[in-house]
Amino acid sequence: MGIELAFAPHATSVVTLTLVDNGVPYWSRPDLGIGNDDLVVSGRTVTVTVHSLGAVDSPSTQLVWLDSSGQKLASATIPQLKAPNDLQPKKITVTLTAPPGRDFTGSTVLVDPDNKIKEITRINNQLRVR
Predict the structure, then answer these.
(1) Using a CB cutoff of 8 Å and minimum separation of 24, what contacts does 41-44 make?
(2) Between the CA of residue 99 and those of 11, 13, 48, 70, 129, what are the distances in Å?
(3) Residue 94 contacts by C-beta under 8 Å, 6 or more apart in sequence?
(4) Predicted confidence band at 1 (pLDDT cuts at 50, 70, 90)?
(5) Closest C-alpha among 83, 81, 103 to residue 92
(6) What is the pLDDT of residues 76-98, one digit of tens each?
(7) Is there a smaller number of Cβ atoms within 10 Å at the N or the C end of the chain?
(8) Could you tell me the residue ranges of all domains in the chain?
């Protein structure tokens, strides 16, 4: 979730925010992520490399492939991934295959579609399939 703010030039802006409740500190959160280089498309198959980027191990979750209307083409389980506390990459490759005859133009892949994991950021959880 984000807050969009627009600041007028040459003017003082005051923004007052109120904490609704304390969240999980960032240093206690997992973070799974995917980037453009982590997606390979071949025919009806998409292969996705999912990285563990957080401060703690990530729990098992889902990876889904959604068509342009948001209907599920395929899904798979991402197993628990260790945190990269030893500064070595922690990742897994997951392969999804779309059913025959389904159009996946404008489709996306999404990590943790139900937002069950309290991550550092969710910005790196979705990619458009090209």
Answers:
(1) 41/129, 41/130, 44/97, 44/98, 44/99, 44/100, 44/102, 44/104
(2) 56, 52, 17, 15, 16
(3) 47, 48, 49, 50, 63, 76, 78
(4) low
(5) 81
(6) 999 999 999 999 999 999 999 99
(7) N
(8) 26-128
Query: How confident is the model at residue 3, as a pLDDT?
Result: 84
Residues in the chain: 130
In CATH, the architecture of 26-128 is Sandwich (2.60)
Is residue 49 within 8 A of residue 34, CB to CB? The reply is yes
Place of tokens 């490759």: 93
| Residue 77, amino acid | T
* pTM for the full predicted model: 0.84
d(CA 58, CA 40): 23
| Lookup: tokens for 65 | 């492939």
